[in-house]
Amino acid sequence: MASSSTAPTTVAPTAAGPSLAPLHRDPDSLQVLVNKHRPVPAGWTAPDLVSAGVVGNRQGMLLRKPAAQALQGMVAAARADGIELILVSAHRTHDYQAGLYSNSIQRNGQAHADRYSARPGHSEHHTGLAADLAAADGTCTLQGCFADTPEGAWIAQHAVEHGFVVRYPQGSEPITGYGAEPWHLRFLGVDEARRVMEAGGIVETAWGAGPAPTYLP
Length: 217
Ligand SMILES: [Zn+2]
Hints:
Elements: H1 22-25, E1 49-51, E2 62-64, H2 65-80, E3 85-89, H3 94-108, H4 110-116, E4 130-135, H5 150-158, E5 164-168, H6 173-176, E6 181-187, H7 190-198, H8 203-206
Antiparallel strand pairs: 1-2, 3-4, 4-6, 5-6
């Protein structure tokens, strides 16, 4: 991508990256980096969690307030375009993620679990700034083919206008450590989401964090 010419030529294998700014290290920041190298701190809880305020496949889903407000605006904008989106996952606690991860290992094995699920502490859903969306009709929910639905295509085009980026885009796995998830959005705020997209669409690269393809030993 265009930004590769300015990327650091060496990446320390155990470091977050030489130029990761303090706001990307602060778990309370809207621009915190969470990935396979950077868990949220043990015992930390996301501040200002509120009801997501959009239609979901279950009750009680929470997001941080700025993300919830932006998501409400995005879902309304989609509806105005004839696209019905529903929320299928938002904030997750450490215990909830532990259950998901362990279920994923039991179903599909460790390698698959580490490609599509996060170890507890490492899920971006802990931040309250990540939302998994689906088509209201259920087509391709949490599957790669969601990218080819009208709902997935709408998200790919318009999420940035509402301050979200598709966090694990196609082809980003060597950097993000996750297979493509066209349904998983990360709230950054409109200005930062635009900056990340202009830098190629991968948060780690845009923030100078270096790749985090696997968990550290
Ligand atoms: Zn997700």
